[in-house]
Every structure is written in structure tokens, then in C-alpha cells.
Design brief:
Blueprint lengths: L5 E5 L2 E3 L3 E6 L2 E6 L6 E9 L4 E10 L25 H16 L11 E5 L10 E8 L6 E6 L7 E2 L9 H17 L13 E8 L5 E8 L7 H14 L5 E9 L11 E7 L3 E5 L2 E5 L9 H15 L6 E5 L5 H6 L5 E6 L2 H13 L5 E5 L2 H4 L9 E4 L10 H6 L5 E6 L2 H13 L2 E9 L9 E8 L2
Parallel strand pairs: 4-6, 7-22, 12-13, 17-18, 17-20, 18-19, 20-21
Antiparallel strand pairs: 1-5, 2-3, 3-4, 5-6, 8-9, 8-11, 9-10, 11-12, 13-14, 15-16, 21-23, 22-23
């Protein structure tokens, strides 16, 4: 099999992270953007002795499991890869791919280690945060505001009818786009690094209905900024919303990277946070702090974490990569002490405010890199919770974590391949997988959260 060769066949299975597998000439070929049961035509992109990768050219026949959907942006928008599949079938696909990924990596796991997948309480409208990008849907076209087009770094899909976000956030997206167009200022071009409008960050708390809006621009059109800020407040405060507009912000970002970077943020209206409630506790969420994007799904996730952690009375707990301290504060009422470590200063400040608001005096939060901070922690933990970013635990931090020799570790992962890699070191250090479950925080997409309980073998 050679690069450039055309192949036709039926997708046999779905492997993590969201790749379909078909067979040809006795070899497996991995293809993005397909579903099990589809007959496709593809072109070989890479081929070697161990694997082949191909680019999808055409879906010749749909999968028997596929259904018609109401989203007008599919498949142009690459956000929701599985939305043509009924939700029970989505869950089965995710459960199967994680089990297939993990089984070969486990060394003598406990009997009955696999607990399957827990569904999201909401299939649509579940996202409490969206980051929209300004751009055009084709070269030289009018300015739009939405998500990156599938397979494209430059083209933007104007996702005005996105099904996974709240109607209030859709209304705000449309109003901000109209306002930006009226100014006459251009969007930021990622090739020339010229232009004004870059991103729109919107958040809405599910329990309280509070909404935060943060417009991200460059500083290149300085004379326009004061009028732009006035118009933003005037238009958004008039907008009929089901929720309550808690704050409007303007963030300046002159970085050449296509990410939301905070060079400077100006508060235009209200306050710079919203309040959310999870499992009976209150949390302040600031613009750039991490918080699970599916609030009701997060309650399912954290409830599963509590069950895996088990008895915590008189226990000292370390919550490493703690974000805004959600897990730490959920555990604190039934623990002796909880210490959270998080590198994002804004998130740590929010965690401290949250703990004070929730009346928790037995948890503290340290700002810093886990790799460096872990050597300075004064207490020795009885158990550890790990909730790292997508790339998992830093290889140099893992030995320091293992030195504590705790009986139980609960690892929460948003990227199962990173968890699989880290399990190798954990098992070599004498831990074994006792329980593992998935929680679907992202219906319609190929993503899933995995929770793993590891206990130290005697």
C-alpha cells in the first residue's frame, strides 16, 4: 500500500480519539471524520509496516445507525463529530473505544474494574462556555463569528444555530457580530497579523443563569476602542435574555498565536465573574479560569469521583491541578484537610474566594507548577486526586507524586491516551487499576472524561 493510493471500504470500528478503522489487503487504515458502518473512499496519507493513515474523500453510503439531524452547520463545523448517531449509540461507541484502548495497558487490574459510561443529563444546550472566532467563511468574504471549519485553520463557520450551547449565548454571538460589522473595523488576519476583532468568550452558569461576555481584540484600532466599549454595553444590556447579564469585559491580545491570551482586560459592566452551583456548593468562575464546560455533567463526574475516593474522614488530601478548586471543596467537608495546587493565578484566587464563600476553613490553594510546588508542601497526603491538563502528568512530576506512597489515587482525564501513558508509571510503582468509568460531558463529540481509581498493592 502506497501513499496516494485510493481505497474504498466499510468502517469496521471507532478507535480513540475519534478515528474510524477499515481493512484493505489485510492492513488496518485509520481515517478521521468517519463513523462505523459507513462505506467510504479515502486516499492513503501515510503507510508503513505498522499502520496506515488516510484522508477521507467521500462517504459513499451512510451508516445504518445514522439519523437526520437539525443542525444546519454539520458537517462543515467539525465540533460535533457524532451528532448523526443516536445518543445511546454514541455512549456505546465511547465506552467501547476506551475499553479497547485501556485493556492492553493494564497489569493485573482488579476484577470488575470497568464500570462503563455515565451519560450527560443534557444532550443539547449543555455547554456553559464558548470561544468563538472572528474571520470569514471564504477568502475575501464578509466577517463571520463562529467555529473553525472542519479541516481548515483559516475558514470560519458562522455557527448561529449551534445546538450544544444555550440560546442566550447564541443571541449574544449574533449581537456582537452585528456590532463588530457596524464599526467597519476588520477581523484579525492570522497570516498578516493585522486587524481588530479576534474572539468572543461567553459563559453562562446553569444553576444561576448568570452570563459573562468578554470581547477579545487587538490594540491596533485604538481610536475605535472607547466607542466600541460603549456600543458593546449599550447593545448587550438591551438584549432580551432568559439569564442575567452579570459582566461585560474587553480583553486586549496582540499575540500572534491564535489563542485567547490576556494581555490586559478592562471591566466594562457589572463584575468579572459569574457564580455557579454544583452539588450544593457555590463557585465563582472568572473569564480564564478552568471550569468544566458541562455543569450538570460535572455533577455526575464529581459524584463519581467522590464514590471512588471513598472514606475521607481524618484524611489529608492533595488535589493536584485543582483549577478553581471544585473537587477540593467538594471533598473538604468530609476530610481533615485538602490542599489544591494550580498554576493559573486567576483560578487560585477564585478557588480561595470560593472556599471562603462556602465556609471551608480546612482547605488551602497554592499557585504554582505541580512539578515545583510538590517539593515544598508541608504535609504528607493520605490520598491524591489528579486532574491534569490534556497532556497528562509531567514526566518529572510523576516520580515526586509517587514518593508520597499514598494508598489511593484518583486520576481524572480528558484525554485517554495521556492517562494510558501515565498508567504505565503508576503500575510500575505498585499501583493497580481498581475501578475505571467514563462520564460523557460532551454529547455529539468524540470526547469523554475518564475517571480511574488506583490502589497500592500490598
Amino acid at each position: 500500500m502506497k501513499r496516494g493510493e485510493l481505497v474504498e471500504g466499510i468502517i469496521e470500528r471507532y478507535d480513540y480519539p475519534g478515528r474510524g478503522i477499515l481493512r484493505s489487503d489485510g492492513r488496518e487504515i485509520s481515517v478521521k471524520g468517519v463513523l462505523p458502518g459507513q462505506r467510504i473512499r479515502c486516499r492513503i496519507k501515510k503507510a508503513n509496516a505498522s499502520k496506515c493513515e488516510a484522508i477521507l474523500l467521500e462517504v459513499i453510503e451512510k451508516s445504518p445507525a445514522e439519523k437526520e439531524i437539525g443542525c444546519p452547520h454539520f458537517p462543515e463545523c467539525g465540533g460535533c463529530q457524532l451528532q448523526t448517531i443516536p445518543y445511546p449509540d454514541q455512549l456505546a461507541l465511547k465506552e467501547e473505544q476506551i475499553r479497547r484502548l485501556m485493556e492492553p495497558a493494564l497489569i493485573q487490574p482488579a476484577e470488575g474494574w470497568f464500570d462503563g459510561i455515565l451519560p450527560s443529563p443534557d444532550e443539547t444546550g449543555y455547554r456553559n462556555k464558548m470561544e468563538f472566532t472572528f474571520g470569514d467563511s471564504f477568502k475575501g468574504g464578509p466577517m463571520v463569528l463562529g467555529m473553525h471549519k472542519k479541516g481548515s485553520f483559516y475558514d470560519i463557520v458562522d455557527t448561529q444555530d449551534c445546538r450544544i450551547i444555550d440560546p442566550d449565548l447564541r443571541a449574544i454571538r449574533g449581537e456582537v457580530l452585528n456590532l463588530a460589522a457596524r464599526t467597519g473595523a476588520p477581523y484579525y488576519h492570522r497570516m498578516t497579523h493585522q486587524g481588530c476583532f479576534r474572539h468572543l468568550l461567553v459563559r453562562k452558569a446553569r444553576a444561576t443563569g448568570q452570563i459573562m461576555v468578554d470581547l477579545v481584540t487587538t490594540t491596533q484600532h485604538g481610536a475605535l476602542m472607547q466607542e466600541l466599549d460603549r456600543m458593546l454595553v449599550e447593545q448587550l444590556t438591551r438584549l432580551p435574555l432568559n439569564g442575567t447579564l452579570a459582566g461585560i469585559l474587553h480583553t486586549y491580545n496582540d499575540s500572534v498565536a491564535d489563542t485567547i491570551q490576556n494581555d490586559r482586560t478592562q471591566l466594562l459592566y457589572g463584575r468579572d465573574y459569574i457564580e455557579e452551583k454544583l452539588l450544593g456548593m457555590e463557585f465563582q468562575i472568572t473569564p480564564f479560569s478552568f471550569f468544566q464546560t458541562n455543569s450538570r455533567g460535572a455533577e455526575v463526574l464529581y459524584d463519581q469521583v467522590r464514590r471512588y475516593i471513598g472514606e475521607t474522614k481524618d484524611k489529608v488530601i492533595f488535589d493536584l491541578y485543582s483549577g478553581t478548586g471544585t473537587i477540593a471543596q467538594i471533598l473538604a467537608p468530609v476530610a481533615k484537610h485538602v490542599t489544591g495546587v494550580e498554576i493559573v493565578e486567576e483560578a487560585v484566587e477564585a478557588a480561595r474566594r470560593n472556599a471562603e464563600k462556602n465556609g471551608l476553613e480546612n482547605c488551602d490553594f497554592i499557585c504554582g507548577d505541580v512539578l515545583k510546588v510538590i517539593d515544598t508542601l508541608p504535609q504528607k497526603p493520605d490520598l491524591i486526586v489528579l486532574d491534569p491538563p490534556r497532556d497528562g502528568i509531567h514526566p518529572k512530576a510523576m516520580p515526586k507524586i509517587l514518593k508520597f506512597g499514598v494508598d489511593r489515587i484518583v486520576y481524572i482525564s480528558c484525554k485517554a491516551t495521556s492517562l494510558k501513558r501515565d498508567l504505565s508509571m503508576l503500575q510500575q510503582a505498585g499501583y493497580r487499576v481498581t475501578r475505571m468509568a467514563m462520564v460523557d460531558l460532551f454529547p455529539g463529540t468524540a470526547h469523554v472524561e475518564t475517571v480511574c481509581l488506583l490502589t497500592h498493592k500490598e
